[in-house]
Known about the structure:
By secondary structure, the protein is an alpha+beta fold. Helices cover 30% and strands 20% of the residues. The protein has 9 helices and 19 strands. It has a 6-stranded mixed sheet.
Amino acid sequence: MLQSELKLRRDKIxxxxxxxxxxAALFTCNVNLIYTYxxxxxGYLYLPLEGPAxxxxxxxxxxxxxFVHPIRKPEQLPDLLKEYGLAIPARLMLEGDxxxxxxxxxxxxxxxxxxxxxxxxxxxxxxxxxxTEMELGLFRRSAAAHARxxxxxxxxxxxxxxxxxxxxxxxxxxxxxxxxxxxxxxGRSMEIFMGSVLTGDxxxxxxxxxxxxxGEGLDPSLPGGANGMLLKPGQSVMVxxxxxxxxxxxxxxxxxxxxxxPQQAYDAHQVCLEVxxxxxxxxxxxxxxxxxxxxxxxxxxRAGWADHFMGxxxxxxxxxxxxxxxxxxxxxxxxxxxxxxEPGMVFALEPKIVLPEVGPVGIENSWAxxxxxxxxLTQAPEEIIEx
Length: 387
């Protein structure tokens, strides 16, 4: 990755550090290393408020460069900082919301005379929420590859398929277009393999995970997504696979049908498209996630679909979420979310309705916030496509 891009990202973090009088940050979690160093390593990136970042690597052992140093254990960090002419920080920030307790306390113990601040996770997620031009370019490339894979979905359907078999074929399409496969998530709220394919009443199955729609899954050890149901005439099939092509999680859902669906399915789908149109027209810098959520709820309530919106029984209380190196970043389009949109933010908007005995309808696209409004990243047909 270009050093100028990495410097831009690190300087965004430094600006936030300066506002909280933080002298240095120490990053060791994979996603934060990708953001600040451009790759995954086993080791640490030490970011002082002023001066270059230093990389301390345990593995792999073939990485070299200016300010790159080998290390065996974190206890070496203070002496190595002194060796390279760096002052021991008075206030050091760690990834408090991501590190295991033992690792956090071990790192903190390496700096006994330093005030340790656990705010590293929230601060870097704040920096990551506004994308650089290079990141936006990667999103656009991911969205194009995502759309190419989805365009081929009808070609891999065969009569008598289960949702699992259909999902496998779509996953293959995604991989052939370059999808990396891994589905990175912040926190413990979600686990999934690439995404979900939901049909019929499985779309209404409640999940412990914080998804828009759940699904029973194939085993209690991973309760979400396809459950082996046969794809039946008169039922919808929602494909929601994450498009991680360059490390960034592009998000898109499209609905297919086995034969003709009941008319109410097409009516409900149109309501979701109206939600998308309403939110997209309203979204711009300064508007909050709560504002957009309330506007969406107004549309579905007036149309009479509030009881089926974002699930049945167990309903998701959001309509969209930030995306980036992880699938659940800021901003969140939900009640009480006062964070204002800013140019460079990227989010997925996913209004969805579930019909009993039929399945899910709706739409999901990825959007970038511009100075004037929104740029739709995922460009693909949005009607229900008959298989």
